[in-house]
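Hi R.,

Here's the chain you asked about this morning:
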Amino acid sequence: MTPDRALDYLNDMLWNAAVVAGPVMLATLLIGLIISVFQVATQIQEITLSYVPKIITAGLMLILLGPWMIGRMTAFARDLYLTIPALGG
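And the predicted structure, written out as tokens:
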């Protein structure tokens, strides 16, 4: 295996990780921003007010997007395993 090919696999892995984790991260970021604006506007400084909605949002996103995430990760792993015979030759 050449170093360029190894870097291509690493790049593909990082890109897939970003695409799979991105929706959950963005959803929790938006909820956190909304809650922070609400806390500043009302001056309520309850710590659980920011954590609980973000945890619920992350859980719902994982439930909704879980099949897509697993499918994408499985496809990447399958493609990687299928290239193993070509790497030895």
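Helices lie at 3-42, 48-82, 84-88.

Let me know if you need anything else.
M.
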